[in-house]
Design brief:
four-stranded mixed beta sheet, binds adenosine-5'-diphosphate, globular, alpha/beta, 205 residues, binds guanosine-5'-monophosphate, five-stranded parallel beta sheet
Length: 205
């Protein structure tokens, strides 16, 4: 049953190390589909349209909302971020593990809609002070943006209880290993429909 589609939601403040952890864990977690979100924020240096995000303007994003294209969307730091439904459905139907890097609002919505196949993990640096230092060291945000991200992080940390797992990203190797364990386990969460089908065939063979 473990080859069936499942969802792994990864949340945590911007600067927590989500991208770094996913990149390092990728060779060790089998085939997965990383959901590429759509956003109205500006690309950072080195980010590519269609790789990190689909970068669109506000009008295009709002047209997508109207057309029901999003599985979920949220406003974060004054920009829209959303997950397109179609590629996620396709990947799930193909039995893949789908990984989302979304905020706490997005996690709530995905849980509401697809909860039975969702495993979630919240990743965070050891403290808000360390988060601030990493955002500065990353060098991709101006002072105002960093202040906004820290304020948002202080709000996001209140949602810690809603997650199945919490990874404190102090040492990057330890955090990556923890993420690999969670990602591999998340495949063992079949939908109720799959469990029922398995039970039927189990009883008749
Ligand atoms: P996110 O994707 O959550 O926004 P990033 O993966 O971009 O975060 O990480 C933010 C910054 O922190 C990057 O510059 C990254 O290299 C650095 N970083 C990530 N994990 C660690 C760690 N354990 N120790 C020190 N720096 C880290
Ligand atoms: P960043 O600007 O650092 O790439 O992302 C900012 C925040 O938006 C992060 O918390 C990230 O998890 C969240 N985010 C990225 N894509 C999505 C999405 O499609 N939906 C939601 N709800 N949040 C997202």
């Amino acid at each position: 049953m473990q080859s069936n589609g499942a969802i792994l939601v990864l949340s945590g403040p911007s600067g927590a190390g989500k991208s770094t952890v996913i990149e390092r864990a990728a060779p060790h977690i089998g085939a997965f589909y990383f959901s590429i979100s759509t956003t109205t924020r500006q690309p950072r240096a080195g980010e590519l349209h269609g790789r990190e995000y689909y970068f669109v303007d506000k009008a295009r994003f709002e047209a997508g909302i109207e057309a029901g294209e999003f599985l979920e969307y949220a406003e974060v730091h004054g920009n829209y971020y959303g997950t397109s439904l179609a590629p996620v459905k396709e990947a799930l139907e193909a039995g893949k593990l789908v990984i989302f890097d979304i905020d706490v609002q997005g996690h709530r919505l995905v849980r509401e809609r697809l909860g039975e196949i969702v495993t979630s993990v919240f990743i965070t640096p050891p403290s808000i002070g360390v988060l601030e230092a990493r955002l500065r060291a990353r060098g991709s945000d101006d002072e105002q943006t960093i202040a906004k991200r820290l304020q948002n992080a202080a709000e996001e940390i209140t949602a810690l209880e809603e997650y199945d797992f919490v990874i404190v990203n102090d040492d990057i190797d330890a955090a990556t290993n923890a993420f690999i364990a969670v990602a591999n386990a998340s495949r063992y969460r079949p939908s109720y429909e799959k469990r029922a089908a398995f039970r039927e065939q189990w009883l008749h063979n």
